[in-house]
Amino acid sequence: MKDSKHPAPVKEAVNVGTAPAERSSRSDGRRQMLVYLPPRLIKALKARALHEDKHAYELVEKAVEKFLEEAK
Predict the structure, then answer these.
(1) How far apart are CA 34 and CA 72, in angstroms?
(2) What are the C-alpha distances in Å from 25 to residues 18, 21, 42, 50, 72?
(3) Distance of alpha carbon 4 from alpha carbon 11, whole angstroms
(4) Count of alpha carbons within 13 Å of 62, Cβ hemisphere only?
(5) CA 34, CA 24: separation in Å to the nearest integer?
(6) Residue 16's pLDDT is what?
(7) What averages of pLDDT result for each successive group of 10 residues across the chain (72 residues)?
(8) What are the residues facing 18 on neighbouring strands?
(9) pLDDT at residue 72, rounded to an integer
(10) Residues 37, 41, 42, 46: what is their CA dihedral angle, to the nearest 10 degrees?
(11) Strand boundaries in the chain, DSSP class E
(12) Rounded to two decimals, what is the model's pTM?
């Protein structure tokens, strides 16, 4: 039985799903982050990126920025 008064410890958000800085240094300052998506979303994202002649990460970055801005 789980004790609701003492929830499981939570990892620091900065460390969850990110690669160590020494392995992911880029000149533009971006860092790698692993995200799991359903296959249908991955397929749609790749198709949209191809249609717009962009990289999938560019579309994801734009979507996350928009989401965070709207959440303010």
Answers:
(1) 24
(2) 12, 6, 25, 26, 29
(3) 18
(4) 8
(5) 12
(6) 54
(7) 53 52 73 96 98 98 97 87
(8) 33
(9) 85
(10) -150
(11) none
(12) 0.62
